[in-house]
Amino acid sequence: MIMEETFVPGLEGVVASETGISLLDTEQEKIIIRGYDLIDLSTRKTYADIVYLLLEGTLPSDAERQAVEVKLKDNYQIPATVMDILKLLPKETHPMDGQRTAISVSAGYDQALNDRSLEANNRRAYEILGQLPAITVNSYRILNNQEPVEPDPELPYSANFLYMITGQEPTELEAEIFDRSLLLYSEHEMPNSTFTSRVIASTHSDMYGALTGAVASLKGNLHGGANEAVMYMLNDASSVDEFEKILEKKLQRKEKIMGFGHRVYMKKMDPRAAMMKESLKQLCDLKGDSLLLDMCEAGEKIMAQEKGLYPNLDYYAAPVYWMLEIPIPLYTPIFFSSRTAGLCAHIIEQHENNRLFRPRVKYIGERTQ
Q1: Of 136, 121, 124, the residue nearest 185 (C-alpha)
Q2: Paired residues of 89 in beta bridges
Q3: Cα dihedral angle (11, 12, 16, 18), rounded to 10 degrees?
Q4: Going edge to edge, which strands form the sheet with 36-37?
Q5: Are 98 and 142 in contact (CB under 8 A)?
Q6: Total domains in the fold of the chain
């Protein structure tokens, strides 16, 4: 007897895994990370706190947070050979492809690569997170014929990351806002990249392999690449009126407008976007220029009225990164760098309680017999 298979396009709403890491609680309108509300955490905790929470399961004490910073700083440097390989890539290579390549190559330097124990996986998660600013920034710099930049071990993780991008030590407010963006991007239940990493990990592949697949997933503009698309769209206008006309023309042509809509947040703004909107206001006030905020708010109104769609995190993260003087091609690599904390937590959880993913299909082809 052949059983009828249920087909759900895109696996929308299908529960694919049990997890103790995070939940998008649509009824309470909260993003739960190990029992805590992510939005609340973003108002009083740092990215280092979230890294510890995701990897260790609890919020850290002050001493434990400082220990996280030390672990990350101890791994700021990346092997010279990785840099040499990046220099061999075609100059047309996207920074995310450079990032993906560097992560894949890094597996060869892990002397305990085949050890899937919790201790080994935790150790490599901190190592990878520590190396990611140098990997992310220098893949971009090398591909743009710029000299690699060295990390500053005197700066906290997020401040060092931003310093490596801009070449200038950030102000306290700039470092705080960038850190908040990393925190908000850090974990979000089971989007495509997280599912990809868990599927790969379920074969008992190593963490580097699972992360390499996640980078490829996150590169697509329907997932991580949306923040870059948002900023290019904003830069096509020099006034609120021009931006409104751009959106209206896109709507008339029935084009997908990046930065709006979400598989989960369908009837309201992504709460992470609201936090980044507030950060954009702070930066606009600091620089005495509200044009980007005014444009974004105008676009927000149009999309709500015309399509019933609301901003997701990418819509307001993009102009925040622009105000922080971050090059647009780095937006998605930064997204991946921040999300790696959550990805590593999922990979570890998959290894700890594994079952190989092996779904079925609904066959719509022909049969000869």
Answers
A1: 136
A2: none
A3: 180
A4: 22-25, 30-33, 36-37
A5: yes
A6: 2
Nearest to 276 by CA among 242, 313, 304: 313
Place of tokens 């920074």: 95
Helix (H/G/I), strand (E/B), else coil: 37: strand
pLDDT band with cut points at 50, 70 and 90 for residue 1: very low
The answer for residues whose C-beta is within 8 angstroms of residue 305's C-beta and 6 or more apart is: none
Is there a domain that residue 7 lies in? no
Catalytic positions, written as ranges: 223, 262, 314
The per-residue pLDDT for range 208-259, each reduced to its tens digit, is: 999 999 999 998 877 778 899 999 999 999 999 999 999 999 999 999 999 9
CA 331 to centroid of chain Cα atoms: 9
Domain that holds residue 163: 30-219+338-352
Q: Which residues of 219-244 are buried (b: 16+ CB within 10 A; e: fewer)?
A: beeebbbbbbbbbebbeebeeeeebb
Task: Name the nearest CA neighbour of 262 among 272, 277, 252.
Answer: 272
Q: Which pTM does this prediction carry?
A: 0.94
E-strand ranges in 244-350 read none
Q: Give yes or no: residues 230 and 189 share one domain.
A: no
The token duo for 276 is 């980044």
Contacts of 182 (CB under 8 A, 6+ apart): 47, 158, 161, 334, 337, 338
Do 188 and 276 fall within a single domain?
no
- Note whether 53 and 168 are same-domain residues: yes
Residues 204 and 246 in one domain: no
362 within some domain = no
Write the single-letter amino acid at 288.
G
In sequence order, the 6+-apart residues with CB closer than 8 A to the CB of 170 are 159, 162, 163, 178, 324
Helix (H, G, I), strand (E, B) or coil at 25: strand
**Does residue 246 lie within any of the structural domains?**
yes
**Selection from 193, 181, 187 nearest residue 31 by Cα:** 187
- The rounded distance, in Å, linking the Cα atoms of 54 and 44 is 16
Pick from 228, 233, 211: nearest CA to 95: 228
Residue corresponding to tokens 């925040």:
320
Cβ count near 255 (within 10 Å): 10
Output the six-digit token pair for 143.
Answer: 């591909």
CATH number at residue 346: 1.10.580.10
